[in-house]
Amino acid sequence: MSEASDPPANRLSPGTLFAYGLPAVAFGFYLFVIQFYFLKYATDVMLASPAIIGVLFGAGRLWDAVTDPLVGHWSDRTHRPGGRRRPWMIAGIPLLAASFLMVWMPPLGPGDPLLVAWWALSLFGFYTALTIYTIPHASLGVELSDDYHERTRVFGVQRMSFVTGMMLSFGAIGYISTATDPAAAAAVIAGAGAIVASAVLALAPLRIRERYAGAPGGESRNPFAALRDVLRNPHARVVLLAWFADGFSGGVLGVLAPFVSEYLLGRPDLVAVLPAAFLVPAVIAIPIWVRASRRFGKRGVWTAALLGTAACFAAIFFVPPSQVLVLCVLLAGAGACFSAGGAIGQSMLADTVDYDELQTGERKEGAYLAAWGFALKLSLGTTIALTGVVLQASGFRPNVAQTETALLTMRAMFSGFPVLATLTAVAILQRVTFDAAAHAETRAALDERASRR
């Protein structure tokens, strides 16, 4: 059934979309250089235990469980002349740069027992700074438009930029991993990346003016009450669970690509090629998914895309290591399908914020986007923690030829994790009932309430 509607009268300009979306390139780069390469860098270059690093990432996810809702709630309650979101974003820029530099430029040598303490400090600082910027930024995207389909356009642009940042991160990973001195190469990437990313991140808070200077329609009492409202929202709960499951596909690819390239394929030069095969089609496909969701509905399009992702990853298990081209073709199909979730899922969650306002009389974009960000980070963090523990249990040893057990484990994780995750997300999505018609009724009720004030 089509969910198409007339183009919104308040259609956002390309300039607004560009200013809002481009910073996602920067924080996508920041995040995925760490998410997708730090485990291998720490084990192979700095000689740390993969299990210890995996657990460290898991602890970082627990820290996110605290910081995401807090920042979301505080952002919702911020009252400044420039708005609720922009002061937080500006504060996050230098903190992100400093913590990113700390991760890749430790003042300690390989094998030093104090490295774990240094990385704990720098990684926890990095994820805190990332939350300070990204949660208000995502909340700002919800506020740019109230239109059901225009929101998908907003988050489609944001997702395209985010995936572009992921691609740049793999270029950086390729440069570091093939360098004669990986530690020195990492320092170069960190320094140049911090400078450029800081300039890009400044674009949104400097160019976009907010619709709300303070929290309209009331304020929730504390972050835990706000989080409780998010979890009580049945429509939001379903979307968040589906997004958590969907995140494993991209997470597995990123974490295991360096290991698969070097140890399974015997081609360390492919460390950036495999992710590029996945991510380039992902960027190209996002506008297609955005248009399709207008015609066929958000839930139906996301479901179809998830099934496509599962089919491609299932086929990957049977591709022999010598067939790199076939592997890249299947990764391209998986990437094109995987890209639907970021744009459509975030748009669906934005719609549920309106439902929450109707029920509670409060707008809590920050709380909802904190839950979205936490679901993604928890998914990626769980992937990294599981990968580190399972690799070590399989007999993995850095910088040597791997046993058949370790190689088979890599193949099974690279293919099997995404299949199980995407099929789980499909099952969850079938419970979604908040469609275009339900959202229109909600908006009409909110407009009627506002007219009586």
Number of helices: 16
CATH class: Mainly Alpha
The CATH homologous superfamily is called MFS general substrate transporter like domains
DSSP strand count:
0
Q: Which structural class best describes the helix and strand composition?
A: mainly alpha
Number of domains: 1
The largest pleated sheet is described as: none
What would the average pLDDT be, to the nearest integer? 86
Distance between the termini: 37 Å
Rg calculated over all Cα atoms = 21 Å
Task: Give the overall shape.
Answer: globular
What percent strand?
under 5%
CATH fold-level label: Growth Hormone, Chain: A
Low-confidence stretches: 1-7, 215-219
Q: What is the N-to-C succession of helices and strands?
A: HHHHHHHHHHHHHHHH
Tell me the CATH architecture. Up-down Bundle
Q: Portion of residues in helices? A: over 70%
